[in-house]
Task: structure prediction
Amino acid sequence: MHRHYNGVKTALLLGGMWAVLLGIGWVIAGATRSSFFIILFGVIGLAGTAYSYWNSDKLALASMRAVPVSPQQAPAMYRIVHELSQAAGQPMPRLYIAPTMSPNAFATGRNPEHAAVCCTEGILQMLDERELRAVLGHELMHVYNRDILTSSVAAAVAGLITSAAQMLQFAALFGGRGNDNRGGGNMLVGLLMAFLAPLAASVIQLAISRTREYDADEDGSKLTGDPLALASALRKIEGGANQRPMDPQDQRLVNTSHLMIANPFRGGAVSGLFRTHPSTDDRVARLENMARSGGFYGNR
Result:
């Protein structure tokens, strides 16, 4: 649905995660002289992926205490989503509102037929209709681009890498001892990989999340024809989230935060590698460039 190369980047990043996992498996198999644990982790990883994929909407909506709304309860939101889904030739998702004044929005669901879009009360009060339309277009493109499957696979593989790294620590300490230099070298390599692999998996997972946001920014702006409205909305959301952040101690919110259109927690000096979202400045710059080069009405 988009002409950029973020899909290729995502495939390469997921390939990198599996390469890290296979590297851990190779070391564990060498240390324990058994491939049993690698097979076990693989089964657990597939099960985790399937569970998060099939239940992603329920988990995300429950974490926000979101409630379904009718056309009478949220007429503007309903009308905009109905128009955009028709323009995209896709089914209309279920609509929810989360009872928090922290401004944000997210989409979830395993496919367009089983999707939901949720806005917080804060974002509905903060944005004008043009900006809300841009945000909803962004969220719909997450559904139409099948981003939930991508994020579910990335999360499951990252969790699998962490579990395998813990097993690798055990194998390196107790199964990698030897009287020769080779045994000592294997133990050091195993310990190094055990500590670095989860960090690498986290960085790759966050990179996938940021890549998906760029996709939805571009594709959503093409759907609405108004990239500058999304740029304006992102500025407002960032300022509102800094004034009324969500609780970073609530693990359910932390687990859902990567789905949201912007970081829901108070901004800080976080390295770009460890951000769940691209910087707002970068996203706005891309959208403004898109408006200048694409002839969208929002640039006139």
Remarks:
- Residues 181-224 form the longest helix (44 residues).
- The CA atoms of residues 6 and 188 lie 36 Å apart.
- Confidence is low (pLDDT under 50) at residues 2-6.
